[in-house]
Amino acid sequence: MNSIAKKVKRVLLKEKPLVKVYSHPRSGTHFLEAFLAKNFYNNKDLNLKEVVWGHWSNRKNKKDGNPYGKLFGNHLFAYHNKNKLPKIYIYRDGRAVAYSVWKTPNFLNKEDSKLDFNEFLQKPIDWYGTPSIKSSKSLTIFEHWLVHINSWFDLAEADNNLLLVKYEDLIDNPCKVYTEIHRKFFKKEKLLLPEELCLIEKPLGLLPNSGTKDAWKKFLNYENQLKFNTLIKSSKIKHNYH
């Protein structure tokens, strides 16, 4: 076999890169990973045997790993992910994100563990992109979430390999999300019927919370709601959350 034929064979046999999930922490990353795995990679080994996670001051080792861990991209801002790889960015209501971070001890500095939810919202976080990266940028969790989402929405305008998925749509209308993913990345493969879809029905991930959309409503005070409303007006998703 000549060298040209060998090169052609390597190209033809080259495995397609995995479609990976990117997100702000606590935005439904593992939920979407599981949905992808069950409906698009059902016969593929995606297991990561060990996962290190959590706040830079309070790291944990999840020894049972993540069965879909190879589908995780990262939690970094979009400018770290300018490449030709297929990507899905899942985003979620910032109030739910903040509540989930606050409810997850390992995502907080131990010094902040006694803050109530509204106190936590007022205090700048000490990480950037992911809780594992120490930072002194002085952003509150709402501000950090907004900058993160805006960076990815900006990237989506220039990157044809990126799909944006709303967490609440994955909860309320998984068939719609499945169709969007299929059209974007898997259009040569069989399109499953709604009754053939594998739906993810239980909370997943690192210390998963209830998975409900609006648990934060019982805790958020009026002052912080006003701050959120003001911030959202300058966001790329101002029509998505109220």
Mean pLDDT: 89
Q: Within the CATH hierarchy, at the fold level, what is the topology?
A: Rossmann fold
Strand content: 5-15%
Q: What share of the residues lie within helices?
A: 25-40%
What topology, given as strand order, has the largest sheet?
A: 1-4-7
Gross morphology is globular
The CATH top-level class label: Alpha Beta
- CATH superfamily (homologous) name: P-loop containing nucleotide triphosphate hydrolases
Largest sheet geometry: 3 strands, parallel
- What class, by secondary structure content? alpha/beta
Number of strands: 7
Distance between the termini: 63 Å
Radius of gyration based on Cα positions? 19 Å
Number of DSSP helical runs: 8
Domain tally: 1
Element-level helix/strand string: HEHEEEHHEEHEHHH
Low-pLDDT parts are 204-208
- What CATH architecture do you see? 3-Layer(aba) Sandwich
Describe the structure.
With 242 residues, this protein is of the alpha/beta class. The protein has one domain: P-loop containing nucleotide triphosphate hydrolases (Rossmann fold, 3-Layer(aba) Sandwich), CATH 3.40.50. The protein is 35% helix and 11% strand. The chain is built from eight helices and seven strands, in the order αβαβββααββαβααα. The chain has helices spanning 3-13, 29-40, 94-103, 117-122, 141-156, 167-172, 174-185, 222-232, and strands at 20-23, 51-53, 60-62, 87-91, 127-128, 130-134, 162-166. The chain has a three-stranded parallel β-sheet, sandwiched between helices. It is globular, with a radius of gyration of 19 Å. The model is unreliable at 204-208 (pLDDT under 50).
